[in-house]
Amino acid sequence: MAIFALLFMVSSVFADAEIYVMRHGDYGGKDKSLTAKGKIQINDMLKQLKLEKIDSIMCSSIKRAKQSAEVIKEYYDGKIDVTESEKLNYKISKDEEINDLIEDVRKKNANDKKIIFMVTHTPEIKKVIDKYKLNITGIGNAEVIQIKTEGDEVKAKHIKIEIKKEKEHN
Fold this sequence. Notes:
By secondary structure, the protein is of the alpha/beta class. It contains 5 helices and 8 strands, in the order αβββαβαβαβαββ.
């Protein structure tokens, strides 16, 4: 009985990985590159999340997502590997590759308190929103869906960029 209690206490201390699924930042131009505004959006979100570190970044192989991943990497002193995955690419289809990828990453990192970012596009994030039954209609540039395990339950929540209004001077 004491061994069971000890195992329960030890397993309760460990938490599964947290996954942050981020939509790329603002983009424009003929080549659809990340804009200066997009870089600011990503940096604002990272400041808002207040994460001391992250362990890995996965991104779509599409330019604006790769550039967004590089902004995240730079924010954390450039010491994080960025892995491209076609499962995060922009697809208008019913496939569930992104949710399968999230589940694979979650299982691979079970009992590991790792923080993993995935940078992707609106159609893919809508699949995540649908799977976790989030009550939102869309997601803005550089906004995040946080996925984490609490007890036996996997929970997801939408994190918007907080817009700080400057005080008006009279």
